[in-house]
Design brief:
- This protein has a domain of 145 residues: ATPase, nucleotide binding domain (Nucleotidyltransferase, domain 5, 2-Layer Sandwich), CATH 3.30.420.40.
- A hairpin with a 2-residue loop joins strand 8 and strand 9.
- The longest helix has 25 residues.
- By secondary structure, the chain is of the alpha/beta class.
- It has 9 helices and 12 strands.
Length: 279
């Protein structure tokens, strides 16, 4: 698969962000190519819900009522989208879905920014689904794989198998926190232990709710192996751990550094967006 271009533009606190975005798009000859944009983390809430047993046309309003007390803003200001998860193997007969909720004003601001930059917006996505798109390209996905990615402020763990997403877990710590404790052995071990625990919970959920056996391989996104994380995951969970190099996954004009891979990973995943495959 060919990756034609990848570029990083640091957001600055100025009034010319649309202009700089437009110049960046022009520099890589984006033109009127349909654009998938990604909501920034922290601007939405991701909630796992049981799909209500109501007629299909009533599900959106039922889910809206179901999560209204979880939201940190009034539900009448919310834009809510859902994506269903594979059927559970348990006898509960529950159908589960993730609900993505954000304020309508945030979506409108996002759209206006891209419009002001002269870009042709097609879809707005979330980072978790973008990292899923990367995970499904991994050879380990054929048997089931956990993929762990860290941004500056948070982490995301997905479990996929044969192109199907089975689990998303948000981890409330990111690269900034990990880098801050690299020289503090006690704090580093405590942070790594938290990540190991969140990973173990995710693996246990997958194994107990689906009929595919345990996941035995975990892939770390570029730049995510900080503070001996890979060794700890292997020692504590017995997983086969590897680190992803996007240069080996895509045909590129020029190799990307690990730092650029980390910065561009979500954007590359967004460009891979297609209709989700049913289980």
């Amino acid at each position: 698969m060919r990756l034609s271009a990848a570029a990083v533009e640091r957001h600055a606190n100025d009034d010319d962000w649309p202009g700089r975005l437009e110049r960046q798009a022009s520099g890589i000859q984006l033109g009127r190519t349909p654009l998938t944009s990604v909501l920034p983390s922290g601007s939405y809430q991701l909630v796992l819900v049981e799909i209500p047993n109501v007629p299909a046309n009533e599900v959106p309003s039922a889910v809206r009522w179901q999560i209204k007390d979880i939201l940190d803003f009034p539900v009448d200001e919310a834009v809510i989208e859902m994506f269903e998860m594979p059927e559970l193997s348990t006898s509960s007969n529950k159908n589960m879905a993730y609900a993505v909720a954000t304020q309508r004003s945030r979506v409108q601001d996002h759209i206006e920014l891209l419009h002001d930059a002269g870009l042709s917006l097609d879809v707005i996505d979330i980072p978790e689904l973008c990292t899923r798109n990367i995970a499904t390209l991994l050879p380990q996905d054929a048997r089931g794989v956990a993929f762990l990615h860290f941004a500056d402020s948070h982490g995301t763990l997905t479990i996929t198998r044969q192109g199907v997403l089975y689990l998303i877990r948000q981890i409330e710590m990111g690269l900034a926190a990990m880098e801050a404790v690299v020289q503090d052995d006690f704090a580093r071990k405590e942070l790594v232990s938290t990540i190991v625990l969140e990973t173990q919970r995710s693996l246990d959920y997958y194994e107990s709710h689906f009929d595919y056996g345990p996941v035995t391989e975990l892939v770390l996104a570029p730049g995510s192996n900080i503070g001996g994380l890979a060794d700890s995951l292997h020692e504590e969970l017995g997983l086969t751990i590897s680190s992803l190099d996007l240069n080996g996954l895509f045909d590129m004009r020029a190799a990307l550094s690990i730092e650029d891979q980390s910065d561009c990973l979500v954007a590359i995943g967004a460009a891979l967006r297609s209709e989700p495959q049913a289980a």
